[in-house]
Amino acid sequence: MNYFLCLLFLFCSVLAATEPKKPVYPSVYHIEFEFSLPYAKLVEQYVVDYDAENNKERIDIYNGLFTSYYRYDKPNQDLYEVIVTQNNQTCFKNMGPHSSNIDLGDSNLTPILPDLTDWTFKEQVVQNGWKCNLWEYNPTAYNRTSYYKFYAKIDTDEPIKLELVGVDYVFGSHYDQYVFDFFKYVPKKVDSSIFEIPTVCNNPHDSHHHVFGRQTEKLHHLIPEPHHVSKSRFDKFTSLFTKNYGSEQERKERQQIFNDNYKKIQLHNHQHTDYKMKINHFADLTFNEFKQYYTLPEKTLPTEQEKIDLKIEEWKPNKFKNYELPDSFDWRDYGAVSNIKDQAVCGSCWAFSVIGALEGQLSLSKGKLTELSEQNVIDCTWDAKVPSYGCDGSDQWKGYEALMELGGVMSEEDYPYLAVTGYCGFDTSKKQLSIESYKFIPKTEEDVMQALYELGPLSVSYDVAESNVYYGGGYYYEPKCSTTDLDHAVLMIGWGNYNNDPSKPYWLIKNSWSTHWGDEGYMYISRKDNNCGFCTDATSPVLSRD
Hints:
546 residues; 2 domains
């Protein structure tokens, strides 16, 4: 027995000796990295100066196209964002954690380098050309596991890479892959002058329209914070979604809201079988708070005077059609729908909806599907006669108007997606199409179905109801959503009967939240009673014949 214990002690001693000491990173550093979503083919360049000792932080994206200043060293907690809007810098100011736009709480700075207290050493590997120690961390809650990997240089502990496959903490209910590739790290030192607020912020815009903090919010949620797994449901939730609260009283209030939402979701999943709902990071918010923080401004339809001034036409159905509409139809079967895309943390759903409709028209016109550029639409419509607002949202008809004025749209290949508003780089010599006009579809199921069949994929809008925030697949029907108060834009590509059941007629919808949301990126939404307003704002563009 003593011999066995000696061998066990020797084995444990050798194991302990071979496992490296966990890196502990300072509270002040400068770091540069590329953040990417491989599925979205999105690569963002970040520069972060982090000074927790003085409660300051600056985050630069794409060499200054988007810059956030966090100054919690001041009593009024100044928060500024400088972004490019139609080739000019614009500054927005938020009043701090208690602003009506976004509640950042007390722990507002974003440490890019994770605390590895609860991480486990896996092995020594070569990553990005360097010999590294690999550390792993896999928190689980409600059967949703997130998988983190962190690579640090052997001996120096310099960070090389951080990977996550898990929940999209910014928009909620789908898994995705996130990668941080670090290429410059300067510990214990930052240039204090870079925290100075720029002169463009001397007269900043308020953040009433601008969705403040949206672009950098992903860093707050994707970087894991240390925690010990608790048996408490709320502790598991706060751990999974790295939630922090400013006071114990706030924590108690959030826990009550979470418990209420959890019961609603569990009750739904016990009572309904057509679709499922899942817990995500919105579960500690009331629905009013969710609508305030995460949906776009209410979409608008053109007024009667605007219809006259802009010569907007309504599509007229062919009353003498000599065909019967099939029971099911899907424009994907005819090559008119591109792959699922990911708008990431940018309020650009309207641009994805417009581009989806244009891709369909171009495919039907040329016989070839070409992926077009949402970024072209986002960047180049700010100062149009009928302007749009990039990542802060718009209406599809306004996008058509601006693109008609601009003169066309380039391809995704020539004008790749950035998920931030940038400088307008439209090159008329590389345009793939131009728009002659667009038409609104009459607001009946029969007309929308016929227009979808005759014209091609339609740009549509809908009301994101509370249950839709947690949609995880299945036949979706929500009697509580509105048919007129619309706040999200998607692409309608077909119809059918769910599981061949005539009592469950659906519209087939292509969303822009990657394949990890819904049914591989698609939604089967009930056609009953214009559920959630999918027939209220249907449009189809008309291409020029040039």
